[in-house]
Amino acid sequence: MTRPVTARVPAKVNVQLAVGGLRPDGFHDLANVFLAVGLHDEVTAAPADTLRVTVEGADAGQVPLDHTNLAARAALALAERHGVAPGVHLHIVKDIPVAGGMAGGSADAAGALLACDALWGTGATRAELLEICAALGSDVPFSLVGGAALGRGRGELLTPLETGGTFHWVFAVADGGLSTPAVYRECDRLREASGAGASVADVPDPEPSPALLAALRTGDATALAAAVANDLQPAALSLRPALAGTLRAGADAGALASLVSGSGPTCAFLAKDAEGAQAVAGALAASGTCRTVRITSGPVPGARLVDV
Ligand code: ATP
Predict the structure, then answer these.
(1) Which of 95, 139, 175, 180 should be mutated for ligand 1, with most atoms under 8 A from CB?
(2) Which residues participate in ATP binding (predicted)?
(3) Whether 272 is catalytic
(4) Domain map of the chain by residue range?
(5) How far is the CA of 177 from the centre of ligand 1 (A)?
(6) Protein residue whose Cα sits closest to atom 17 of ligand 1
(7) Looking at residues 191-220, what average pLDDT do you find?
(8) Is the alpha carbon torsion for 136, 142, 145, 150 positive or negative?
(9) Hey, what CATH class is 5-162 in?
(10) What is the chain's Cα-based Rg?
(11) Which of 4, 25, 73, 304 is at 20 to 30 A from 108, Cα to Cα?
C-alpha cells in the first residue's frame, strides 16, 4: 500500500490499580483494570525513505521526535521482525495528555504498529502484534485491545472484561506530567517509610476486586464508584500535593468517584450520567485547580484503522 494509513487509538483510565511488591527485576506485579475512554490520538503512517516522526497538538512540544518516541520504536520493532526497511513518516495528532497517566505514548505505539502493518503489508497476526506491544511497554497491549480488560503481570497479560453500559468521565488535566517510574519509586518509598516494607515478601499479591468487576459487568456507576482504587494515588499526591485540591473540587461538584488516573497527574472523575459529567466539568474548570477539563465516556474500542 502506498497511500497513507491512519490509526485511531484511545486513552485509558485505571479503575483499579493494585500494585504488588517490588520484584527483583525492578517491576511490580499488578492487578490493573483498564477502561478505554474516548480521548484519542491519531497516528498516520506515510511512505518515506527513512523513519521520521512529527507531532501536532497542544502537548506536541513534550513529545520526543527521535527514535525514543514509542511510535518510532513500534515501527522499528515491526520492520525488524519482518525484515522490511523501516521507511515511514509517522505523524501523530495528539489529543491524549502527555505523561498524564492515560497511556498516550502506549496509544501511539499501538497505532503505529497497526498503521505500519497496513502500509508495509507485513500481515502480522493479532498474536504477533500483541507480543510486540508487550515488549514495548506494559500498557501497550491494552491500547491495541481497548474496551475493558484486566492486566496481570506488569499489566501486559490481558483478560478482556465484560461491561454492561457506558460510564461517564471527566478528566482534569494538570500542568506538566509525572514520570511513571518516579511514581512507582515513590510508592515503594512510602511503603518502606510506613514500616510495612515494599518487596514482594512484604506486600500482599494484588487481586482484582470482585465488587468492581461486578459493577463493570452490570454498568452500575454508583457501585463502580464505591470500588475504584488506585494504589499509586498516595505516591502521586506525595509528589504533587496540589492534586488533592483537584480531587476535592470534583468531589464537591458531585462526582461519584474522584481518583488519580494511573500514575497521574491527570485526575479522573466518574459521573452519574452525561448531565452529571457536565456539572462536574463546569465546577472543575471554575476551580482553577487544573489546566484543562475533558468530558468523555467509556468503554470504547481499541486501536483501529480509520479512513480520513
Ligand atoms: P502511562 O499511563 O502508560 O504510564 P503516561 O500517559 O503517563 O503513560 P506518556 O504520555 O506515555 O505517559 O509519556 C511518558 C513519556 O514518554 C513522555 O514524557 C515522553 O517523553 C515519552 N514518550 C515517548 N513517546 C511518546 C509518545 N508517542 N507520546 C507521548 N510521550 C512519549
Answers:
(1) 180
(2) 97-107
(3) no
(4) 5-162, 167-298
(5) 9
(6) 99
(7) 96
(8) positive
(9) alpha beta
(10) 19
(11) 25
What residue type is 136 in one-letter code?
L
Q: What is the pLDDT of residue 284?
A: 98
| Residue closest to 172 by CA, chosen among 273, 282, 292 | 292
Q: Which residue of the set 108, 139, 188, 231 is catalytic?
A: 139
Burial class (CB in 10 A: 0-12, 13-18, 19+), 234: middle
Which residue, among 56, 43, 32, 33, has the nearest Cα to 10 in the 3D structure?
43
Write the residue with the smallest CA distance to atom 18 of ligand 1. Answer: 99
167-298 shares the fold of 5-162: no
Looking at CATH, the fold of the domain delimited by 167-298 is given as Alpha-Beta Plaits (3.30.70)
Percent of the chain surpassing pLDDT 70 = 100
pLDDT category, 119, cuts 50, 70, 90? very high
* pTM for the structure as a whole: 0.95
Number of CB atoms found within 10 A of residue 82's CB: 15
Burial of 128 (0-12, 13-18, 19+ CB in 10 A): middle
